């Protein structure tokens, strides 16, 4: 059976990094006997320019019919003056909502070979292996908003059901990992966070009694991510907190270009994308780091296609390339030679078993 993968290159460096992820997927699929079909569709600013919408109906329809969706990045300064509901980023929010993707998985793992790329001291980075589970379709990004002459507002809302389902995802992941969950909120100030803490406490106590559970305020969590990152296993938090904390956590690994993500719902296609943005300053120059996109493709193999061995092979090939000293410029040490986007992708392909 052929698995159709919709490829949404998007804007900036998005098409460049997804092209390498597709090359790796195509090669590993051939070696393990998977049949994949890749279909490109527009999203983001390029879709707005061509079709007047950051998420054209045909793109959403194609994604709903696919086995999985691979995304690059959206946005750029040229769309800064576009109405808010037509901004490239709105296309991504609408895609997540349209596919029912409420749990965003963002792994953060450090490697000894890249400890020099992180601004933290190497001793802080030993044995860091974190899975952040970010709620994706609620919170302030999807609440009521408005603006008039001298004020603006954005509303943060959550329901018990939205919190329960993402906590269950975090609980299941923690059972497969090291058995610890940290739930992050701002319960000392926000009513939505008080609901979050009450609901998370109940879900973990009743459904995952074997797990070790802690609750942290988001400001404390931001500090502890830098002071004791190896103490964390699975983190679960609401939409905006997760967005901010995972960008911070990328500095543990050394670069935002290294980190992948998977956005999942209850059945249907998953959405896989690197956590970095469109990087318009380097777009078209062939120097972007495709590592996050390639590792997102590995997550696609694991979570949407059930090809765990193929996923592990891709992850091992990326690690082997990095261990061999293959570096794009964002992770190269001062004076160290670097390679371009396509060269890094080829280095990964060359190391596939």
Verbal overview:
The protein has 353 residues and is α/β, with parallel strands linked by helices. It has 2 domains: 1-101 and 256-353, Isopropylmalate Dehydrogenase, CATH 3.40.718; 119-253, Isopropylmalate Dehydrogenase. Helix content is 41%, strand content 18%. The longest helix is centred in the first third of the chain and has 19 residues, at 14-32. The two termini are 24 Å apart.
Percent strand equals: 15-25%
Count the helices. How many? 11
Number of E strands: 12
C-alpha termini separation:
24 Å
Weakly predicted, low-confidence segments: none
Major sheet description: 10 strands, mixed
Task: Quickly give the CATH architecture of the largest domain.
Answer: 3-Layer(aba) Sandwich
CATH fold description of the largest domain:
Isopropylmalate Dehydrogenase
In helices, the fraction of residues equals 40-55%
Radius of gyration: 20 Å
Number of domains: 2
Form type: globular
For this structure, what is the CATH homologous superfamily of the largest domain? Isopropylmalate Dehydrogenase
Mean pLDDT: 95
Short description:
The chain contains eleven helices and twelve strands. The strands form two sheets. A ten-stranded mixed beta sheet has the order 2-1-3-12-11-4-5-10-8-9, with helices on both faces. Strands 6-7 form a two-stranded antiparallel ribbon.
């Amino acid at each position: 059976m052929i698995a159709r993968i919709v490829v949404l290159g998007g804007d900036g460096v998005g098409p460049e990094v997804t092209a390498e992820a597709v090359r790796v997927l195509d090669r590993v699929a051939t070696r393990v006997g998977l049949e994949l079909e890749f279909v490109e569709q527009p999203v983001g600013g390029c879709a707005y320019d061509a079709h007047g919408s950051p998420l054209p109906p045909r793109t959403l329809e194609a994604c709903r019919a696919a086995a999985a969706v691979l995304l690059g990045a959206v946005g750029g300064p040229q769309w800064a003056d576009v109405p808010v509901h037509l901004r490239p980023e709105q296309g991504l929010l609408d895609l997540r909502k349209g596919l029912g993707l409420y749990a965003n998985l963002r792994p953060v793992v450090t490697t000894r070979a890249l400890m020099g790329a992180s601004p933290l001291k190497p001793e802080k980075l030993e044995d860091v292996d974190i899975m952040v589970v970010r709620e994706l379709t609620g919170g302030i990004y999807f609440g009521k908003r408005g603006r008039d002459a001298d004020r603006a507002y954005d509303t943060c809302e959550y329901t018990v059901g939205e919190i329960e389902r993402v906590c269950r995802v975090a609980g299941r992941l923690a059972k497969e990992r090291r058995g610890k969950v940290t739930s992050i909120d701002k319960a000392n100030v926000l009513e939505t966070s008080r609901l979050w803490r009450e609901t998370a406490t109940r879900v973990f106590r009743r459904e995952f009694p074997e797990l070790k559970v802690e609750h942290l305020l988001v400001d404390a969590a931001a500090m502890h991510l830098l002071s004791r990152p190896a103490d964390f296993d699975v983190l679960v938090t609401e939409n905006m907190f997760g967005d901010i904390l995972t960008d911070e956590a990328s500095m543990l690994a050394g670069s935002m270009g290294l980190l992948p993500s998977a956005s999942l719902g209850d059945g249907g296609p998953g959405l896989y994308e690197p956590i970095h943005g469109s990087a318009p300053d380097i777009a078209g120059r062939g120097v972007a780091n495709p590592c996050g996109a390639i590792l997102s493709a590995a997550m696609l193999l694991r979570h949407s296609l059930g090809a765990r061995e193929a996923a592990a092979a891709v992850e091992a090939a990326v690690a082997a390339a990095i261990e061999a000293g293959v570096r794009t410029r964002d992770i190269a040490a001062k004076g160290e030679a670097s390679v371009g986007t396509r060269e890094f992708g080829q280095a990964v392909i060359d190391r596939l078993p």
